Amino acid sequence: MGELFNEVLMFLGTLMIVVGAIADLIGSIGLLRFPNFFVRLHAATVGTIWGAFLPLIGAALFAAGYVELGMYRWFVAGGAVVTASLILLLGPVGSHALARASYRSRAAVPHPLIHDALQEKLREGEKK
Amino acid sequence: MRIKKFLVLSSLIILVLTLSLAFTKGALGHYPLPLPGVRLLASWYLFTTLNPQYPVFTAMSPEAVTAIVWDYRGLDTLFETAVFFLAIVGALALMRGISLKSALNNASNRVGDGGLSLICKTAARLLTPLIIVVSASIALHGHLTPGGGFQGGSAAAVAPLLVLVIFSVYFLLSKGVSEKPMLILRTVGLVGIYLTALAAVLIGLFTGLNAYVFQNQPKPDAPLGLPAQISGALISGSLLFFNVFEYLAVAGGFTLVFILLSIPEEVVKSFIGGETHE
Question: What is the pTM of this model?
Answer without folding.
Answer: 0.81
